[in-house]
Amino acid sequence: RRVHGGGGRALRAILPDVQIGTTFSCSWIEPQTNKPKDIEAAKRIDTLLNRMYIEPVLGMGYPVNDLPVLRKMSKYMQPGDEEAARFDFDFIGIQLYTREIVKYSFLTPYLSASLIKAKNRNVQITEMGWEVYPPAIYEIIKKYNRYTGIKKLYITENGAAFPDEVKNGQVDDPKRVTYLQEYLKQVLKAKSEGYNIGAYFVWTLTDNFEWAEGYNPRFGLIHVDFETQKRTIKSSGRWFADFIKKKAEPVVEYQEQEKG
Predict the structure, then answer these.
(1) 51, 52, 57, 58 alpha-carbon torsion, rounded to 10°
(2) What's the distance, CA 211 to chain centroid?
(3) Helix count (H) and strand count (E) of the chain?
C-alpha cells in the first residue's frame, strides 16, 4: 500500500492541479447459504478481495478484525507504514465484472472459505468462466459509497469476453450488447438513487493481451485480427457509441421503465 500513497504524493508534488486516482479490482460476494459458517466465510473473502487494499489507502488500517490472518503482517511492518499508505485521492476506481458465491471450507488455510465456481452453479457465464450477474455492480457501488473518504467513485473496468467471429466483414456479439445494457442499467439505478458514481469505462476498446490468458479471451468493442492487425467494430461497439451519443436519454428511459 506504500506504493499507492507514495505514488500519489509524488504525482501531487509535480502535478498539483491534476486529478489523481487509483483503482481496485472487486467482486460482489455472497454466502452460499444463510448458515453462520457460510456467512462468516463470505465476510472473510469480502475482506480479502474488497477491503484489504482500499482501507489502508483511506487511512483505516488493515481490516484485521474480519480477517485475523492479517495480524501476521505486523512483524513485517515498519514505523510509519500505515501513514505512508494513506493518500487523499481525487477519485477511486473499481473494476467489477462478476459475483462470487462462497462456502465454508475447513481445508482452506487461513480463510476457511472457498469459491463455488460459476460453471457449477447453472448460471450464465462468460468465456472467462465468470457469472453474468448485473446486480453485482449496483451492490459494489453501494458498498463503496459507505466509505466517506472517497470523493469520487468511477467504474474503471466492466465488460465481458465472449467468442467472436468475423462473418462477411462484421462481428455480431449480442451477448456482449446485452451484458453492457444490463450492467449499465444497474449503474444508472445507483446514480438515480443518489449514490456517488461519476463515470463508467468499458473494458475494453480493442481485443488485447489478457495476461495469463493471452490473446484468447476477447473483451473488446473492436475486434482485432492479431495476424493482420485489421480492426472491425463489433455490434457492441456500435451500440455503445450510440449509447454515448444519446447522453442523458438512457437515464430517462431507465427511470420511465422503473415507473412502468
Answers:
(1) 40
(2) 17
(3) 8, 7
Gap between the Cα atoms of 234 and 32, Å rounded: 36
CA atoms of 41 and 30, how far apart (whole Å) = 10
Q: State the Cα–Cα distance between residues 32 and 49, nearest whole angstrom.
A: 17
Query: What would the pLDDT profile of 90-118 be if each residue is shown by its tens digit?
Result: 999 999 999 999 999 999 999 999 999 99
Query: Which one-letter amino acid corresponds to residue 225?
Result: D
CA distance 159 to 198: 18
Q: What is the pLDDT of residues 32-80, one digit of tens each?
A: 999 999 999 999 999 999 999 999 999 999 999 999 999 999 999 999 9
What DSSP state is assigned to residue 50? I
DSSP 3-state assignment of 9?
A: helix
Number of other CB atoms surrounding residue 255 within 10 Å: 13
